Amino acid sequence: MKSSLKIGSVMGIPIRLHITFLLILPIFAYVFAINPQPFGFGGVEPPITKYLLSFLAAILLFASVIVHELAHSYMAMRYGVKIESITLFLFGGVSAMEEIPRKPGQEAKMASAGPLTSLAIGFICLYIYGNLISLIPGLSPNPAYLIFWILGVMNLVLGIFNLLPAFPMDGGRVLRAFYARRMSYVKATQSAAAVGKFFAILMAIFGILVGNLWFPLIALFIYVGASEEERSTQAEVTLENILVRDIMTKNVVSVSPSMSVEDLVHFMFEKKHMGYPVMEGNNLKGIVTFTDLQRVPYLERSVVHVSDIMTKDVISVPPDARASDVLKLVSSKNIGRVMVVDNGSVVGILSRTDLVRVLRLRSE
Asked: Between the chain's N and C termini, which has fewer beta carbons within 10 Å?
């Protein structure tokens, strides 16, 4: 992900910071600095102390969000799910998982692990704060102690908020697991998504009534997330029993690495495809797409060759791979097609358009 920065790894899972997180971190620090006690450090002197404590509180808050996501990831790894990364975004953390467990019990445990961890952190921090205050009865507490109070309250809010049955949030996934014990996985997803959209609408209305724009913004993310999860689940289930060999294009049209970009343009107009494997004899050298040739200035297309613009790192799949796995692959990598390779030989090509066509036919 080009818009994120890796800062380390925990349990072998890369931890990344998205650019939106870098924008929100100083905002949180500033909010803590101007808010009065006990939910901020307003009035703390000197100002340098106030801002240092505020920045520390903001960092620790987002560190607890990472712990929240690590709890999800730990439970997922116990069930054999691969975790690609954890990324901190504007509204919190996201674990990039290979797939969500289909077994209701596993999904429920995995989804509830994060909120329960946040609640545990919240209670521990409040317990520490209470004990620190009791050590100095009658005296003004050290303002640094407020960090434990802020972390405690914020983690309790985070845990409770995530337990709301607003799919695709954690509580919504627990709800889907509940539904999945009584109906098909697709129907359970649709039912949980409907509840999530309903909560999003209520949240947006509440935010408008109280004049708080954060609620409609969060509601938008929930509504869009529920819709996307519903569509992706429907697509995944529709394609999971279809093999790549059944829907791939077997007569692969290829181009030579020595072909000029100008000739490639004419070739694309003739064959009416937007991407081609680059073959030299029986050897796959790369893949070239319409996007690649667009980067070449018009006057240089006669002297630039396909080998100069092709993508050499070709993503391929075996013919017995599931179409649903290929759909997730092309979506996560944001590519238009994959090569189908069997024992080192190219036997076909499968495009995103092919997958969409099958989805439409199956839905009919």
From this structure: C
